[in-house]
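haha ok so turns out i had the wrong file open the whole time. this is the CORRECT one, sorry everyone. sequence first:
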Amino acid sequence: MTVEIKVDGKIFGGWTRASVPTSIEQIAGGFVLEASHRWPGENQLLGLREGLTCEVLLDGDTVITGYIDMFEPELTDTTSFIRIEGRDKTGDLVDCSAIYKTGQWRGAKLEAIVRDIAKPFGIDVIVAPGLDQGDTFKSFALEDGEKAFDAIDRACRLRAVLCTSTADGNVLLTTAGTAQAGAALVEGENIKRIRATHTWKERHSLIILKAQAPGDDDENGAAVAHMKAQATDAEINRYRPLIVMADHSTTNAALKDRAAWEVKVRMGRGKRGTTTVVGWRTGRDGMSGPLWKKNTIVPVRSPRMKLDMPMLIVGCTYLLSEAGKFTEITFARPEAFELVEGIGRSKLSKRLNDKTPQEKKKKKDEGFSTPWDLNAPKSYRE
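then structure:
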């Protein structure tokens, strides 16, 4: 078995190229598959088209449950091709507006809000065991024209919860993972290619948080309170201070948490990398063991990359080409994905969840044009 897509109970195999990316930085996993236009041994066209419900399987394991977004047949005088693209069910949350009764909740828990937004799309909500969803929302309202996922993501950030998707296309409310991947990434063993980024650009020796809050008898007194908290990054050995203004009213305790969060998350973002391994599975041969999975912890040992620490797998892209099967694994320090209640969408949080400039480069066929050729062409038809 290799890459297969199931539509209406029928399995379509024989794909010659595939890219199947999943990540905790994007809610929706996706896929790109390509094969000859006519099925081997058959004289009829593939029974595929845009809009169909489907499952994508890698060696029998379901990794995507969703829809075919795009169907692209291509014909020349000597050859014919078919290419399909799609995403899991949560892709509809990214594309479509959130609609819910009056558009406002009062006294609701996070799970209830997310479930109400996702329900019309036929998407269920899974809560990770032991997840602390925080306090109920006194009030939460949709913004005019807000996309469904934007509303979900905003609510999750206000309660320090990470929102991602499952292999069956549902929403998972969780936090940065602590489960072990079951293998290590080791230079000279299973690492085929690797690159790393070590940066101090967004890190500071001292971070000072400032905020104002209306006074009250219990917390700050009667007048407007001017509050300040600070945290240091011991690894930064030169003078690099930063003052951050809190973007919402807060308490002294929350401000201290926010200062510590700024230091830890910037530290986490300062180490990030991408590696390519043979196969899709964690076994030494790349063919045994479970699939590599996002949001798991993997030890990374690469002396030349100056890496020897546990890292969080941010995303996995499963690749198939003439060169064989590979998994491109993106990893970062786990601190990069720690959240603090009420952070909202500060400029920092946006930057921390943006892809690196290299990852932002537009590629005609995403997933095959890797930084290292791996003998795979840069596009399907070059």
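Residues 40-45, 355-382 have pLDDT under 50 and may be disordered.
again sry for the mixup
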